[in-house]
Amino acid sequence: MQSLLFNTNIIVTAILHDTIEDTELTKEMIAEAFSHKVANDVECLTRIKKNHKISVVEMVKILYRQ
């Protein structure tokens, strides 16, 4: 049951998920302010497909692999 609970890094990553693609913030800035783990996870959620769309299922799979 405890593995289903959200931890602080997951919550921060969820809040910051669009910052790299939608703002001037960089991965390095996020790492300085939060952690390298959060920065890496946010980068993984940055949409890199041509049409800038990635499904929620794809996002969860990416984060789960982390």
User: Could you say how many structural domains there are in total?
Assistant: 1
Which stretches are poorly predicted, pLDDT < 50 over at least 5 residues?
none
Strand fraction band? under 5%
Shape: globular
Mean pLDDT, to the nearest integer, reads: 80
Number of strands: 0
Helix-strand topology string = HHHHH
Rg from C-alpha positions? Answer: 12 Å
Give the % helix: 55-70%
Name the structural class: mainly alpha
| Alpha plus pi helix count | 5
Distance between the termini: 20 Å
Report the major sheet.
none
GO molecular function: hydrolase activity
Keywords: Hydrolase
Organism: Rickettsia amblyommatis (strain GAT-30V) (Rickettsia amblyommii)
Protein name: Guanosine polyphosphate pyrophosphohydrolase/synthetase
Characterization of the model:
There is one protein chain. The protein is mainly α and 66 residues long. It has one domain. Helices cover 61% and strands 0% of the residues. It has 5 helices and no strands. α1 crosses α4. The longest helix is centred in the middle third of the chain and has 10 residues. The protein is globular and about 30 Å long. The protein starts with 7 loop residues before the first helix and ends with a helix.
Give the gist of this structure:
The protein has one domain (2-65). The protein is 61% helix and 0% strand.
Keywords:
66 residues; mainly alpha; 5 helices; hydrolase; hydrolase activity; Guanosine polyphosphate pyrophosphohydrolase/synthetase
